[in-house]
From TrEMBL, chain A:
Residues 2-240 form the ABC transporter domain. GO terms for molecular function: ATP binding; ATP hydrolysis activity; transmembrane transporter activity. The lineage of its organism: Bacteria, Pseudomonadati, Bacteroidota, Bacteroidia, Marinilabiliales. It comes from the Bacteria. Belongs to the ABC transporter superfamily. Macrolide exporter (TC 3.A.1.122) family. Keywords: ATP-binding, Nucleotide-binding, Translocase, Transport. Pfam families: ABC_tran (PF00005). InterPro entries: AAA+_ATPase, ABC_transporter-like_ATP-bd, ABC_transporter-like_CS, MacB-like_ATP-bd, P-loop_NTPase. Gene3D superfamilies: P-loop containing nucleotide triphosphate hydrolases. The keyword Ion transport does not apply. It comes from Sunxiuqinia elliptica. CDD domains: ABC_MJ0796_LolCDE_FtsE. This is Putative ABC transport system ATP-binding protein. One of its GO terms (cellular component) is membrane protein complex.
From TrEMBL, chain B:
One of its GO terms (molecular function) is transmembrane transporter activity. The chain crosses the membrane at residues 21-41, 287-312, 332-362, 382-402. The lineage of its organism: Bacteria, Pseudomonadati, Bacteroidota, Bacteroidia, Marinilabiliales. It comes from the Bacteria. The keyword DNA repair does not apply. Residues 21-250 form the MacB-like periplasmic core domain. It is found in: Cell membrane. Its main location: membrane. This is Putative ABC transport system permease protein. Keywords: Cell membrane, Membrane, Transmembrane, Transmembrane helix.
Length: 241, 420
């Protein structure tokens, strides 16, 4: 599904260059539930942005569904994003002057679906996430958990193959975080690849595969079976810290 | 192609910051408003002045005499002289470019009331004229008739009077036609009451206070001999009245032994030249109106553009989200330009409407004020309004274009990161 081969990425910081990704090789299969971890500055958000075609890479190759993603026009990238990828953000990023239903329906608007139809579909998705009664509410009338669920509904509405979530629980309390993770798990069970960036170990522990980044390289990949072990090292890290 | 979501977004974006939207729109509003008002006022002045002169023969020139300013052929400078019947005869015979020629005598007004009828007296401007004069400076008879050739030929003691003369010398419900007025000691029968069609006034005083009598009668009855105080000419079709004026001056100087280079001895006035000055003046006013109006409008448009830039900056994150969930750059750009055009056109339309409304109110006031103002019918024509609208749409698009370009240059990733 996703095949990264020796991805390099650096940012121009005026005079100096910041080398963020220093050769990432990563394969993610259809239907996997993956978390990307790492301390701040390790390049995890950059990696997610490249995966989501929000950013270009400098070197290497990125194959998404056997299609090379490189040098695309903004228009092409936008259409591909719309078709393939759903985004969930830490700060929800709902549009403040649109109600929940309109926010969810927005990707379909960009696809050119007519208003009546896309609002009906949006309502369906809101219902799935238990927010049907909130369809007419504005984002500022909803709790963080509700907002994130709206955002997830929005990510799902265009039937993406991949959900990319950047710190989806970063702004939520623990119980709400777990609710959101449950939802993501359900989505994953339906066959959609879910990739989340997080720095919370308990959140990462709920995924099938943890990719740990360190200084722009993949430090280790922990698979489902080894998660118990991972918890153990995580606890040890906590004790030593 | 009505996109409800696009309009909803535009309206909510503008509503989010009412004050700022209002101030921005005000710049454009004011620009268009000023353009309309100034243009209307300029047009009104033009209409007012042109209305006052339209019945006046534009190819006419007028001549009177002044003291000479140069010694010539034994005459000293400062000599007084005067036209005579032989001059007119000679000009009629030898100058073929003339269409109408109308000599005139001025009656005296200086010794107070010169017109008497029973108990009533009045001081009026008395002129001795030829009927041709009415073809140069238009008058219409309100009652009775104008003066005609036979009056002149038979030296009839008849007169036509202005409306003010009728008011002073007759009762309200009295018919002046056939009545007699004693003008400077001689009785004249009133044959018409006349109304001036133009505001150009030769000889001073109010036009309504005019009494016109046949030229020949005046010359004979008041002992003017063969003197002529003044004459008017109009040029034939195809002849420039300015060249005719020069030619006549040359002939008159020769006949009255005046130095050819004496610029002062013949007083003259040429409507054609005045008209040219007028039309240049109005052209200038219109040009100035557009320059100032467009300048003000431009300032407003730059304001819109500036505000749009700020809006883009504020909405960087929102644009980022839209890009992330599949909005194409074209769609974002369309949105911003549409917002800008909408703001500009709305503001401009209000400015246009209020401007036209104000002109209309002004027009009503002017109509109520009557004839006495040189300011008439302020108006904005359709072409003007349409071109203003076109300028608005264009400038709105222009104002939106730069911020839109800026917006699509933002990478979605930068836009999303902007918040943190």
């Amino acid at each position: 599904m996703i095949k990264l081969n020796n991805i390099h990425k650096s940012y121009d910081m005026g005079s100096s260059k910041l080398h963020v990704l220093k050769g990432i090789d990563l394969e993610i299969e259809q239907g996997e539930f993956v978390s990307i971890m790492g301390s701040s500055g390790s390049g995890k958000s950059t990696l997610l942005n490249i995966l989501g075609m929000l950013d270009n890479y400098d070197e290497g190759s990125y194959l998404l569904a056997n299609k090379l993603i490189a040098n695309m026009s903004e228009k092409k990238a936008a259409q591909l994003r719309n078709d393939m990828v759903g985004f969930v953000f830490q700060s929800f990023n709902l549009i403040s002057f649109k109600n929940a239903m309109e926010n969810v329906a927005l990707p379909l608007y960009y696809k050119g679906v007519n208003r009546k139809k896309r609002n009906a579909i949006a309502l369906e998705y809101l219902e799935k996430l238990g927010l049907k009664e909130w369809a007419e509410h504005m984002p500022n009338e909803m709790s963080g958990g509700q907002k994130q669920r709206v955002a997830i509904a929005r990510a799902l509405i265009s039937n993406p193959k991949i959900i990319l979530a950047d710190e989806p629980t970063g702004a939520l309390d623990t119980s709400t975080s777990y609710e959101v993770m449950d939802i993501l798990k359900e989505i994953n069970d339906a066959g959609i690849t879910v990739i989340i960036v997080t720095h919370e170990h308990d959140i990462a522990a709920m995924t099938q595969k943890v990719v740990r980044l360190k200084d722009g390289r993949i430090d280790e990949i922990i698979r489902n079976g080894e998660l118990r072990e991972f918890r153990h090292t995580y606890n040890k890290e906590l004790v030593t810290a | 192609m009505f996109d409800l979501d696009l309009w909803k977004e535009i309206l909510s974006a503008l509503k989010q910051n009412r004050m700022r939207s209002f101030m921005t729109a005000f710049g454009v509003f004011w620009g268009i408003f000023m353009l309309i008002i100034m243009s209307g006022a300029g047009r009104a002045l033009e209409n007012g002045v042109m209305e006052g002169v339209k019945a006046f023969a534009t190819n006419s020139a007028f001549f009177w005499t002044e003291r000479t300013s140069k010694p010539y052929e034994g005459f000293q400078r400062g000599r007084r002289w005067i036209y005579n019947n032989q001059d007119i005869e000679y000009i009629r015979q030898s100058v073929k470019e003339i269409e109408y020629l109308s000599p005139r005598l001025f009656g005296w007004q200086q010794n107070g009331d010169n017109t008497i009828r029973g108990e009533r007296t009045g001081a009026f401007n008395i002129y001795g004229d030829y009927p041709d004069y009415f073809k140069i400076d238009g008058w219409t008879p309100v009652k009775g008739r104008l003066m005609n050739e036979i009056d002149v030929l038979q030296k009839r003691k008849v007169c036509v009077i202005g409306e003010r003369v009728e008011e002073v010398m007759f009762d309200k419900d009295e018919d002046p036609i056939g009545q007699y007025l004693k003008i400077s000691g001689v009785y004249f029968q009133v044959v018409g009451v006349i109304h001036p069609e133009t505001r150009i006034n030769i000889g001073g005083g109010k036009k309504e206070e005019t009494i016109i009598i046949p030229f020949s009668t005046m010359q004979t009855a008041y002992n003017y001999g063969d003197e002529i105080h003044f004459f008017s000419v109009t040029a034939n079709q195809g002849t420039s009245v300015s060249s005719l004026e020069e030619k006549l001056k040359r002939i008159l100087k020769e006949r009255h032994k005046i130095a050819p280079d004496d610029m002062q001895a013949i007083g003259s006035f040429n409507i054609e030249a005045e008209f040219k000055k007028f039309s240049m003046l109005f052209l200038g006013i219109q040009a100035l109106t557009w320059i100032v109006g467009i300048g003000t409008l431009l300032a407003g448009v730059i304001g819109v553009s500036n505000i749009m830039l700020v809006i883009i900056k504020e909405r960087t994150q929102e644009i980022g989200i839209q890009r992330a969930i599949g909005a194409t750059p074209g769609k974002i750009m369309l949105h911003i330009i549409a917002e800008s055009v909408f703001l500009t056109v709305m503001a401009g339309y209000i400015g246009l409407s209020l401007g036209v409304a104000l002109l209309e109110v002004l027009n009503q006031i002017l109509l109520a004020a009557g004839d006495e103002v040189f300011f008439r019918n302020p108006e904005v024509n359709l072409t003007m309004a349409l071109s203003a609208l076109a300028v608005l749409v264009f400038s709105g698009a222009f104002a939106g274009f730069i911020p839109a370009r800026r917006a699509i240059k933002i990478k979605p990733i930068d836009a999303l990161r902007d918040e943190s």
